[in-house]
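Technical annex B. To support the medicinal chemistry partners, we prepared a structural model of the target in complex with pyridoxal-5'-phosphate, based solely on the information shown next.
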Amino acid sequence: MRACAVAGRSADAVTLLAVSKTWPVADIAACAAAGQHHFGESYVQEALEKVTALPELNWHFIGPLQSNKTRPIAESMAWVHSLDRFKIAQRLSEQRPAHLPALNVCLQVNVSGEASKSGCTPEQTLELAAAVAALPRLRLRGLMTIPQPTTDPVAQRQPFVQLRTLLERINHDLGLSLDTLSMGMSDDLEAAIAEGATLVRVGTAIFGRRPTSAAGL
Ligand SMILES: *Cc1c(COP(=O)(O)O)cnc(C)c1O
């Protein structure tokens, strides 16, 4: 909320996604009881266990997704932020049950160009967006990125500017009205909100540091 005030943006313009990976169901239930509605998970098996335990919450899948794991994700999630290939999108659309609303999706873009990171390249994004937008059981909402970490607040803003510019270009060139910029985590959410984030994915700053057995996750 303070970051919104600093950026001159209204607090309800930014959705807080509580990233609950590695934390037990009891902690998530307590957070939900305090008024939090949206929760993010990165690992398929763990995500499915938590959705089963707390089906009334809004669940977002934010981790890497392989094609042999798409069905349970299509059957249980409200959102997928980490879409970066058409093949996965096609499967999710085919497997989304008819009784559920279309699955909200964001394309993950590797704006920093790190070889180790998942995400499509900025150059691929327009074409992928056009293809995904045409799938009947997906609702393309916007773009997501996980930039290379840096503590320099000025440098932090640069990948977020790139993602926002890319979203504007997609909307302009394809005549879409995508409304979601999923960017900003515990250590760079102020920079992301200053550059137009509509959803920040925050784990550590809500739940505390993840257990060391999960280091690197
Ligand atoms: C773990 C994770 C987060 C949360 O990171 P924190 O630094 O703990 O806030 C956000 N987004 C993704 C994709 C993650 O995997």
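Notes passed to the chemistry partners:
The two ends are 27 Å apart (CA to CA).
The longest strand covers residues 138-144.
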